[in-house]
Input
Amino acid sequence: YANFEPVLLRIEETIDAGAGARPAIWRESARIARDFWLVGTGLGGFQTAMLVYQQMDRAWFINQAHNQYLQWLAEGGLLLAVPALVVLVAFVRLFLARLARDASALVWLRVGGATALVGAAVQGIWETGLRMPANGLLFAMAAAIAVHRPEDSGPRESSE
Output
């Protein structure tokens, strides 16, 4: 019932095209990240910095790094990267602790939330998808599902 030919053709097109102009964009973005390694250009400053840094054909303008991590380094430098890494380590530890304690059937929702986060992290290599508010909200919801602390199902005491 399924016609896989269009899907296979799309995959073949993607493989043939490769990363496109992204490696060149990444090199230009890395120059900004190197020059502003400590504090970055400021959140939202990538586009302005690229007015000076762009060496590629100016028939089109590079307005984002097409790599979430390079974008963060260029705009936030170590001032953003170091706290982000600390939060990442804390989040992974919390997720693993909650996963180890979760014996319910809902554990698969937790695993699904974590899988969505990994998918977004992998996509971040080729795109800056988390800059879009809807994607950021979905990312936050997946993170909340992954580390959700279930309520105790025992009897509750009245606070009166």
Observations:
- Residues 68-101 form the longest helix (34 residues).
